[in-house]
Amino acid sequence: MAMNAFEIKKQICEVGHKLYAKGFVAANDGNISVKVNDNEFYCTPTGVSKGDLTPDMIIRIDATGKKIEGKLNPSSEIKMHLRVYQERPDVRAVVHAHPPVATAFTVAGVELDQYILPEAVLTIGNVPTCEYGTPSTMEIPDSLMPFIQKHDAFLLKNHGALTVGNTLQKAQFTMEEVEFNAVICKHARELGGVEEIPCEQLEKLMELRKKMQIPGRHPGCKTCKNLGTENCRCKHNCDKGDKKAAAPAAGDAALVAEITKKVMEALGR
């Protein structure tokens, strides 16, 4: 059932409050939008803390960014939201925030591309880092273009993260997954190194993703750069990168069931 205008505005505020409470935004950072139809969107205003949002602050704009309804003004960064909606008709919501650890990866020039958590593998895969762009200009929307068709999560160089979804809750959950994955990766590096999930298991997770019909785009299974050589990092004989995933063994049933449960809970399904 479609939500009415007040319900959409209320949900945007609730997501804003959660982002602020989790420390994903500071001051008046970040922005949120929801698509109603091809020429109507609701978005957060500029100059307001996401922790202080109320439904009457939410603005309605058209596909060009022009304000249709609202007392306040939309963020100048709404340009990147509108570009996403233009390029990805399946997207119904966009969230931009500055999750600290994920953002630190971009500042340090470290890619968030290691496959370490089954839940993150299933939902987001690797998260690309987009080229730096000046805020409020078309440079940031343009920086998304190399990745927009295969990803639902993007790191913005020195500027935070952007996540999209078929619902606002999905976009919010994806943002949380990006930051959680970055935190675990950072801790693992501090403890001595990151041990990635082997290709064999990644292939099984990709098959599981298909069976679960998880919505959104995904970059696919990451394969070892040294596939089939003596320097291969994988923990199995992976001399053929295009082989089909093996069926889960009986001993994997409990693990698959647990992963499925967690992902379905995260997706709110």
Structural shape = globular
- How many domains, as an integer? 2
State the order of secondary-structure elements, H for helix, E for strand. HEEEEHEHHEHEEHHH
In the CATH hierarchy, the architecture of the largest domain is 3-Layer(aba) Sandwich
Cα end-to-end separation: 15 Å
Tell me what portion of residues adopts beta-strand conformation: 5-15%
Can you characterise this structure?
It is a single chain. With 269 residues, this protein is of the alpha+beta class. It has eight helices and eight strands. It has an eight-stranded mixed β-sheet, sandwiched between helices. The radius of gyration is 19 Å and the shape is globular. Residues 235-252 have low confidence and may be disordered.
Summarize, please.
This protein has helices spanning 5-21, 78-87, 100-108, 118-123, 139-144, 168-190, 199-212, 253-266; strands spanning 31-37, 40-43, 59-61, 67-69, 93-97, 129-130, 153-156, 160-165.
Defining traits:
alpha+beta, L-fuculose-1-phosphate Aldolase, 13% strand, 37% helix, 269 residues, 8-stranded mixed β-sheet, globular
Q: What does the secondary structure layout of this molecule look like, with pairings?
A:
Layout: H1 5-21, E1 31-37, E2 40-43, E3 59-61, E4 67-69, H2 78-87, E5 93-97, H3 100-108, H4 118-123, E6 129-130, H5 139-144, E7 153-156, E8 160-165, H6 168-190, H7 199-212, H8 253-266
Parallel strand pairs: 6-7
Antiparallel strand pairs: 1-2, 1-5, 2-3, 3-4, 5-8, 7-8
